[in-house]
Amino acid sequence: IVLTQSPATLSLSPGERATLSCRASQSVSSYLAWYQQKPGQAPRLVIYDASNRATGVPARFSGSGSGTDFTLTISSLEPEDFAVYYCQQYSNWPRTFGQGTKVEIK
Amino acid sequence: QVQLQESGPGLVKPSETLSLTCTVSGGSISAYYLTWIRQSAGKGLEWIGRIDSGGSTSYNPPLKSRVTMSVDTSKKQYSLKLKSVTAADTAVYYCASGRVVFDYWGQGTLVTVSS
C-alpha cells in the first residue's frame, strides 16, 4: 500500500494551525498512525488508529479519517512541533510509510 | 519503560553482510513483534521485517532474499543480517516494537556501505 503525504513542506508560524494529509492507495480502514521525527532522533508515535493520541501527546494534536484519506491537525503550533511527520499503515503487510511532511518555521 | 538499543558495525564493505543487534531492557516485548526499519535519504522510512519471540518472521519482499532475523530470548536480543550489501543499503537502522504500532524505538544506528 502506497501512502502519499501532502504537502511535502508546510511553512507556518507558531500559533498557526497545521493540516497534514495522507492518502492511501487502497483502504486501510482506520489502521493508520502518525509519527513525529526531529533531527537526529527516532520517530515518535503521535496518533494511532487514525484518531487516538498516544500517551503523553498534547491535545492540540488530532487525527481524523478512514479508508484512504487521513488528516493530522495541530491546532496551534508550538515551537517544539516543528518537525517531520510520517503516516504509516498497519492494515496490510508489508507495513509502509508515507514520504513525510516537514513542518517548518515560516 | 521498554528501551531498545541497536548495536553493530557502522561501516560495512560492499558485498559483505550487515549485522546488527537490538537489545531490549526495562521490560518485556515478548508479546509484541520486534521490527527492523531503516531510513535513508533516498527512500525515507522502509519496513525491513519483523520477528516474534518465537522466531516467526515476515520480511519485506524486495529484501526477502537477503534478510535474516533471529532472536535470543535469554539475552533479550534480536538480530538482523542483511547480506550482499551495496551502497543503496546505507541508512540509519532502527529496531522498533509495540502492541500494534511502533510505540518503542531504538535511537538508530547509521550503517555506511563503502570500501
How is this fold's topology laid out?
The complex is a heterodimer of chains A (about 110) and B (about 120).
Chain A: E1 3-6, E2 9-12, E3 18-24, E4 32-37, E5 44-48, E6 52-53, E7 61-66, E8 69-74, E9 84-89, E10 96-97, E11 101-105
Parallel strand pairs in A: 2-11
Antiparallel strand pairs in A: 1-3, 3-8, 4-5, 4-9, 5-6, 7-8, 9-10, 9-11
Chain B: E1 3-7, E2 11-12, E3 18-25, E4 33-40, E5 44-51, E6 57-59, E7 67-72, E8 77-82, E9 91-98, E10 104-105, E11 109-113
Parallel strand pairs in B: 2-11
Antiparallel strand pairs in B: 1-3, 3-8, 4-5, 4-9, 5-6, 7-8, 9-10, 9-11
Properties at a glance:
heterodimer, A: 106 residues, mainly beta, seven-stranded mixed β-sheet, four-stranded antiparallel β-sheet, 11 strands, globular, B: 115 residues
Quick overview:
The complex is a heterodimer of chains A (106) and B (115). By secondary structure, chain A is mainly β.
Strand content of chain A: over 45%
> Which two chains have the most extensive interface, and how many residues on each?
A-B, 20 and 20 residues
Give the strand tally of chain A: 11
Mean pLDDT of chain B: 96
Uncertain stretches of 5 or more adjacent residues of chain B: none
Distance between the termini of chain B: 39 Å
Shape of chain A: globular
Report the biggest beta sheet of chain A as strand number plus sense, adding barrel if it closes. 7 strands, mixed
Span between termini of chain A: 33 Å
Helix-and-strand structural type of chain B: mainly beta
Strand fraction of chain B: over 45%
Shape of chain B: globular
Task: Please give the radius of gyration of chain B in angstroms.
Answer: 13 Å
Main β-sheet description of chain B: 7 strands, mixed
